[in-house]
Amino acid sequence: MIILLGVLEEGLVYAIMALGVYITYKILDFPDLSVDGTFPMGAAFTATLILSGVNPVLTLPLSFLLGALAGCVTGLIHVKLKVRDLLSGIIVMTALYSINMRLAGGRANLPIFSKETIFTNSRLTSSLPAEMAPYTVVLILFIIVAVCKILLDLYLKTRSGYLLRAAGDNDTLVTSLAKDKGLVKILGLAIANGFAALAGCVYCQQKEVFEITVGSGTIVIGLANVIIGTQLFKNIPLIKPTTAVIIGSIIYKACVSFAISHGLNASDLNLIIATLFLIILVCSNYVNGNSGKRGKGHAQAAKH
User: In this predicted structure, what is the pLDDT of residue 298?
Assistant: First the structure.
């Protein structure tokens, strides 16, 4: 049960970040590496605010806004300065390392063990039955993830959301509607990095510590979550892509936990992540290749 709760907790935290990666990878087709910087930025900002006496709940929207600002910078570098998408993300990610260190007061490690967080709120813990104590963290995380998913689904149904999808699929359509496709991209990157920073905020409060290295490999984890979820459930219309991404995040964390529990060391985590990601990409390409061949076969059969 402890292992299962741990998988759910880690999976739900990274599911928030994966929702942002879903926007850049699946909707905008933008390889945004700045996520590796905005995730720890949310954590550093949160630790600093909590140590300053700010209400832990307020750190959630504040971290989202700070991440959105970083996403805007990535978008502006790409759109206005005409820097390639991959390079613009790398530039912001590199710059954010120094900014995150400044946010944490120059410290690579900033603990908040003695402070109240959204998970150690005295009012919340006292209002819940004692039997619910082991599940408090999962319950709070589930509520946060559900709110993020619902808000994202609602946004994607708006006019702005449809324009965001069009910017990734057919940017000439956005231009034909007299809209600036560059501004649409910037908005998408802002939302995506807002989710990444929010995930970092939640992660910091769950672990009760900020570490500068926490963002290492974030984009790889996010991509793996998105690919697992969208590939497994792409033929099930009842499951929305955002729901699939959340489930994919939990499945991915379950795979990592399984590998560690069967003899691999925690120091092998990056190796496990890289190996899993490679397997996921190969399987995804194989499935897509087979479906493409079947589609061509049906088309040729129809002609004959």
Answer: 52
d(CA 62, CA 126): 27
Mean pLDDT throughout 79-93? 95
CA–CA dist 34, 243 (Å, integer): 24
* pLDDT reading at 299 higher than 50: no
What is the C-alpha to C-alpha distance for residues 242 and 22, in angstroms, rounded to an integer?
Answer: 8
Is 70 within 8 Å of 96 (Cβ atoms)?
yes
Stretch 121-150: mean pLDDT, rounded? 85
Residue 26 predicted with pLDDT over 70: yes
Task: Tell me the CB-side half-sphere exposure of residue 16, using CA atoms within 13 A.
Answer: 32
* Residue 76: strand pairing partners: none
Alpha-carbon span 36 to 89, nearest angstrom: 9
Q: How many CB atoms lie within 10 A of CB 3?
A: 12
217: helix, strand or coil: coil
User: Residue 191 class from Cβ within 10 Å (0-12 exposed, 13-18 middle, 19+ buried)?
Assistant: buried
Residue 209 DSSP SS3: strand
Instruction: Note the pTM of the prediction, 2 decimals.
Output: 0.90
209-211 and 109-111: which strand pairing? antiparallel
Taking only the tens place, the pLDDT of each residue in 136-154 is 999 999 999 999 999 999 9
Distances in whole angstroms, Cα of residue 190 to Cα of each of 14, 69, 184, 194, 199: 18, 6, 10, 6, 14
User: CB neighbours (10 Å) of residue 201?
Assistant: 33
Cα dihedral sign, 186-175-31-279:
positive
